[in-house]
Specification:
The protein has helices at about 5-30, 45-55, 110-120, 130-135, 150-160, 185-195, 200-210, 230-235, 265-280, and strands spanning about 35, 60-65, 70, 80, 85, 95, 125, 145, 165, 170, 175-180, 240-250, 250-260, 285, 295-300, 305-315, 325-330. By secondary structure, it is an alpha/beta fold. Strand 15 and strand 16 form a beta hairpin. Strands 5-2-1-6-7-11-10 form a 7-stranded mixed β-sheet, sandwiched between helices. The chain has 2 domains: about 30-220, 3-Layer(aba) Sandwich (Rossmann fold); about 225-330, Alpha-D-Glucose-1,6-Bisphosphate, Chain A, domain 4 (2-Layer Sandwich). About 35% of the residues lie in helices and about 25% in strands. The longest helix has 26 residues, at about 5-30.
Length: about 325
């Protein structure tokens, strides 16, 4: 037999062996039942990200809702749950996504479903503000947890028995795992897969779905300084604010927004200044030559006692009538 033919035969045998081993490993590993809670206004990536990850393991993944009727997700996708709270199979893993959680806050049937099924489930994973459902069900009392960056402070206030973590993409308590917002649910699901099937399987799935899974990722939205610009963004919401740019790090941030209003630059700045004092608890720097009818200077202290400086500047967009540009810059003092 020629050398080339021999190498080809060896390669075919090797591929065949790998296929047999892979098939055997799939048969030997346990097949999970994964129940995903869905509801009106559920966030799409919160449940579809984990659905993809668990589906890649060969798990039986199914959506569960209070009623069997079609549901409308955030941004208008229509989905049909496979089971209801009364007839879903017993789950090994529960996924509790976020979205319009506030609209279902007082739904006793939903909370009861979480409590009942969590008792016998091996793992319970929340994504985004789905953590609020778990907290409401009493499952986060005394545990560490996280949620989407914009609601970190709300979780702290609403559920003081929970130790809220800001510097992790997901928090693993063993059985209860909470992931941050949106795409962080993929990482939470990969964490569950690694616990059930091993690190290699989770890594293989991450590569297969072309997802950069980095346990030491420094992309932690809850630690970015952008959270301190929230009072400005909230004030500008009624003006149909559009974000032009939003950049920075954990110790500084610059956000530029455009709005439409009949107010003058000076009038808008005065209203924004009043909002920053009363709602943002910022302190205006009164004795500065840099103060103008279009610019104000600030200082404030964060929850850790660190001091920050800020600047708010408002300018006309020039030729476009009734359009103003608002620029806010903040920086932590050294």
């Amino acid at each position: 037999m020629k050398r080339g033919s021999l190498l080809l035969l060896q390669l075919c045998l090797l591929i065949g062996c790998f296929a047999v081993v892979r098939a055997q490993s799939r048969q030997e590993r346990p097949k999970l039942n994964v129940a995903i809670l869905v509801f009106e206004g559920v966030q799409i990536i919160d449940y579809t990200g984990p659905y993809e990850v668990f589906g890649q393991t060969g798990a039986d993944v199914y959506m569960v809702a209070e009623k069997p009727e079609p549901l409308t997700t955030a941004m208008g996708m229509t989905i049909v749950p496979k089971y209801t709270f009364e007839n879903n199979p017993k789950p090994d893993v529960m996924v509790i996504p976020g979205g319009a959680v506030g609209k279902h806050w007082e739904n006793a049937k939903l909370i009861d479903w979480i409590q009942r099924n969590a008792k016998d489930s091996k793992y319970v994973l929340s994504v985004c503000n789905g953590a609020f459902f778990l907290a409401k069900a009493g499952l986060l009392d005394g545990l560490a947890a996280t949620t989407t960056a914009g609601l970190i402070d709300d979780l702290k206030v609403d559920f003081p028995k929970t130790k809220v973590i800001t510097n992790q993409r997901f928090v693993d308590n063993g059985k209860i795992i909470t992931a941050g917002g949106l795409s962080a649910g993929i990482e939470g699901a990969l964490q569950v897969v690694s616990k059930v099937y091993g690190e290699g399987t989770a890594q293989s799935i991450a590569l297969g779905i072309e997802y950069h899974w980095d346990r030491n990722s420094t992309f932690l939205p809850a630690t970015l300084a952008r959270k301190f610009v929230k009072p400005v963004r909230r004030f500008l919401l009624p003006f149909d604010a559009v974000t032009y740019s939003s950049t920075g790090k954990d110790d500084r941030w610059e956000e530029v927004l455009t709005i439409k209003t009949d107010l003058t630059t000076a009038d808008l700045l005065q209203q924004l200044n009043n909002h920053l004092v009363t709602v943002g608890k910022w302190t205006k720097k009164e004795s500065s030559s840099e103060h103008t009818p279009s610019t104000s200077l600030w200082r404030f202290t964060d929850q850790d006692g660190k001091a920050w400086n800020g600047t708010v500047h408002i300018a006309s967009d020039g030729p476009e009538k009734n359009k103003l540009i608002v620029t806010v810059k903040i920086q932590r003092q050294a």
